[in-house]
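Please check this today:
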Amino acid sequence: MTEILSVFHLMVNGEKMSKSKGNFYTGDQLLEMGYSPDQIRYFLAMLSLPVKASNFDFEHFAERNKFLAGPMNAAFEKPISACNSKFDSKVPEGKLIGKAEAETLKLVQLYLRSMQKGDYSTLLGQIENYARLINSLFSQYKPHDDRAEETGRKDALFTCFYVLKNLMIMLAPFVPETVNELRKSLNLPESVLRAEELGTGIPAGHAINAKGVYFPAVAEESSEAT
C-alpha cells in the first residue's frame, strides 16, 4: 500500500465518542481491557470507515472475536495438527480438489481490487467464507482420521495447505502478529507475505512445524464494556 485513505467518523455503541459520556476509548484502553492488537485491527477494518460513518459496537466486536477464535482458528489449526499427527509433519503428495483453486483465483482478484480501494469490509467477509473451505474439506475427507480413504485424505490436506497459505497472505495486513505465528508454524520465510505469492501453494514434502497460538479465546466480560 502506497496511498493514505481518508475515513469517516467512528462512533461507539451508536453515539459519537465523548469523554463526558464515558464512551471514548483509545487504542491503549482497548488493550488494557484484554483485547489483542490484531482483534482491534480486524474489527476496525470491517467497519467500512473509508465509505461511511461506522459504529464500534462491543456486542458485534465480541461476535467477530468469537469467529476468529472459533472457525478461523480451526482453519489454521486443523491442517497443522493433522499433518503433524498423521503425515510425519510433511505436506502429503496430492492434488487440488473441489472448488479450492477456482475460489482462490477469484478471491485473489477481489483482494487486489479491494486493497487498492480500501474496501476492507466486503473483502474480509469473503475471506471468512474462504477460510470455511478448510473446515469443509475436513468434514468431508477427514484427513485426521486413519479410517477414511487415504487418497482423499492426502488430496484434502494438500488442498488445505494451499488454501491456508493464501489465507495467511491475505490476512497479513489485518492481523500481522497472528499471521507471523502461523507463518512460523508453516515453516515459511517472511518473503512469502507478498502479493506475488498469491495463487500458489505449499509443495508436497514441505516440513510443517508445531501448532502455535493464534487467535485467543474471547473473554465473556469483554462484550459488556460500555
Observations:
- Residues 91 and 203 are 7 Å apart (CA to CA).
- Confidence is low (pLDDT under 50) at residues 221-226.
